[in-house]
Specification:
This protein is 35% helix and 12% strand. The protein has 211 residues and is an alpha/beta fold. It binds zinc ion. It catalyses: Hydrolyzes the link between N-acetylmuramoyl residues and L-amino acid residues in certain cell-wall glycopeptides.
Length: 211
């Protein structure tokens, strides 16, 4: 079980109040394992292909909450859009799995330990930016937390997310700069403020670049 790998983080999770999310994620990952076994060459307990770094876990969003596509053939993938959930990981996961919600992101990073769930495949168009053109051309990454509560922006969250963004940029030849790694609040027409002024962009971009 993936839960075994998370045991060392139990104290951290307790401190952040995220233990409930862990319990639910354990169940989700168990289910996800069956999907991953079909979709990857490794099929190891929900973990995706060994080539992926950082490791992510497949927790599919409702098929009503994204659009199947064939990127980068259908659209170039040129941007990474950074979000903050304004929800716990668990609650955001439920939203992605609720067909009535009509929202999703490709990835979500947990605050306490940097756990990464993948909800939509990169080839498909997740509905996260509130702008069809930007959705078509981007990968959306959610971060567990609230824009006005900096304690959610942990070292683990920054480091895990930056490794993910670096891998996405490498896959699609996206420059690792602020012109291509953008805030949800910078998407034209967006009325969202995330990830907000407390998000440390200088630190994040440095981490993405391995500085
Ligand atoms: Zn957002």
């Amino acid at each position: 079980m993936e839960a075994h790998g998370r045991t060392p983080n139990r104290r951290t999770l307790l401190r952040s109040g995220a233990l409930i999310a862990t319990a639910s994620l354990g169940a989700a990952v168990t289910t996800a394992g069956a999907h991953a076994a079909d979709a990857t060459s490794t099929g190891t307990r929900g973990r995706r292909a060994a080539a992926d770094y950082p490791p992510t876990h497949w927790i599919p969003a409702s098929s009503s909450n994204y659009r199947v596509s064939d990127r980068p053939t259908s659209y170039p993938i040129e941007l990474v859009v950074i979000h903050v959930t304004q929800e716990t990981f668990q609650d955001a996961m439920k939203i992605f799995q609720d067909p009535a919600k009509q929202v999703s992101a490709h990835y979500m990073v947990a605050s306490a330990d940097g756990y990464i769930g993948q909800f939509v495949r990169e080839k498909d168009v997740a509905w996260h930016a509130g702008n069809t053109d930007y959705n078509n051309r981007s990968i959306g990454i959610e971060h567990e937390g609230w824009v006005d509560q900096p304690e959610w922006f942990t070292d683990a969250l920054y480091e895990s997310s930056a490794a993910l963004t670096a891998a996405v940029c490498d896959r699609f030849a996206i420059p690792k700069d602020r012109a291509h790694i953008i805030a949800h609040s910078e998407v034209p027409g967006s009325d969202h403020t995330d990830p907000g002024p407390l998000w440390d962009w200088d630190r994040y971009i440095d981490l993405v670049n391995g500085v």
